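Dear all,

This email documents one entry for the complex benchmark we are building for the journal club exercise. For each entry we list the sequence lines for every component of the assembly. Then comes the predicted three-dimensional structure of the complex as a token string, followed by one or two observations. Please use this as the template for your own entries, and keep the labels exactly as they appear.
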Amino acid sequence: MDKSSELVVNTHKKSKVSSLVDTFKQHKMSYLFILPSILLILLAMVVPLIHSFSLSFFKWDGYSEAEFVGLQNYIKLLTDSLFWNALTNNLKYILLFATFTVVLGFLFAVAIDRRMVGWRIYKFVFFIPVMLITAVISALFAQVFEPNFGILNTLLKTVGLGEYTQLWLGNPNLTVYSIIAVAIWQITGWTMLLFLSSVEGIPTEIHDAATLDGVSEWQRILYITIPMVKRMAYVIIMLQIINSLKTFDLIWVMTQGGPNYASDVLGTILYRTAFSQQSFGYASAISVTMTVVVMIICAYYIKVSKLAKIDE
Amino acid sequence: MFFKNLSKPVVYFLLILWTVLVTYPLIYMFLTSVKSHGEILQNPFGLPENIKISNYLTALTEYEMGEALINSILVTAGSLIILILVAALAGYAVAKKAFPGNKIFFITMVAFIAIPIHALVVPVYYFIENLGLSNNLVAVMIIYAAFHLPISILIMRSFFENVPNAVEEAARIDGCSEFRTFWYIALPMTKVGMATVAIINVITIWSEYLFASVLLTRPESRTLPVAVGAVSSGNAGFDHGIFFASLGIATIPMLIIYFVFSKQITKGVASGAVK
């Protein structure tokens, strides 16, 4: 009796396993098709992510034995004035960068959509900075902002506004804003293009009908265009916030976070902590914090954008 | 009424101001790149007296910009080829095959779009270092391909979904194997999709600085962003004509691509971001 029931269980198990093998065999090609993706993501993202997370509980200089310190790296981070200074700069960056790129990008998109004189030129020219290497833009603007012979101060002196010359990158109160201005310069063409794609999607009949009804240009923008591009605006604002949090090379090449940490952001303290000070555990704690912040924003972004509906 | 009369001139003013703001620094860069150091100091704004192309040759040969240019082209092309192939395979399977785990795989991939790759720089650096792959361009290509894979699978999937099933069924009835159906029938029908993947990723890969700066440290294996960063931080006292020529070398390839493909690029960027 016992034996026979065991046998039943065994064959049952066997059939379950073999049916799994059968499904696998049946879909062998499908699994082979997704295998390279799984391998790449595992190697370059999943393993590093886990490694980063576990490393954040250790003190490690990269050579000697790692020492388990529990939450100490996180406590150190939260009490580190440099961390809060960097986060404040990130927030300034988010606020100014997102606002200006979205407002200017929208304005330019509407102007181009209305076929204002020279629209082809604007559309072509405004996107050029997006195509450039960020490090090149940083190096170029470091020269533009150079206090003695840089073109900005020279230009101010030439037109008789000599008293407005500044140490654009040397004055700690000014550096962040100079850098943010460059970021806006670089990315406005991109937001313009995204807005343009959604503004151009509005059927012209709506505008024509409104115009016939005597609705003014401003009212049309306010009551037709803005509601129609609202979702796109949401998406762009979220993307800009994430991009602001990730900003690194623009600042690193221009000022390395200086003078005296005045232009530090999370990206630059992460880089300095890891690759100049060799504090890999502490750097990992910064990485994990960055990841958590960005993922929270992304979760919200996925909720408001189309991505959530992908499964339908 | 007041707004209506005021708004047009204001918008035109902004449009023209922005055109000048965008183009002038670039014009300045290219003009300065063909001047001699002395001329830059004496005459920073004017047209160059005689065009000194030798700045470019010096930057290419003596300041490793030539190697950097070649490395950048290799890394970008290599990453894009790996990326497009891997993303097309996965996108095809997700769009066309009803295998168990299809949805889980796809949703997991989409979730990885949210990972800020900057936060991975410490472990990736150690991983590569321990494997003895520092300064190895192929390792960097694979890493770049992996980082851009999630969004690319998303795009390829949507393009494969538009390939009619009837076409594949016909191929299968004719005795075409699954891989051959993919390679010879479905893939050629998604050329636009592959181009979109290339367009939305080429800019970020071409200008990637963070990972390149820690993984490619030897002067002869640097990519353009790293080489420019190195030249920029060490530029005090060195010839400004050559410095600006270095920036020019790093800028010209993408400018050419933009001038030739601006329509496709602007279309691709817009459609890629909305997906």
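Observations: Residues 112 and 122 of chain A are 7 Å apart (CA to CA). Confidence is low (pLDDT under 50) at residues 307-312 of chain A.
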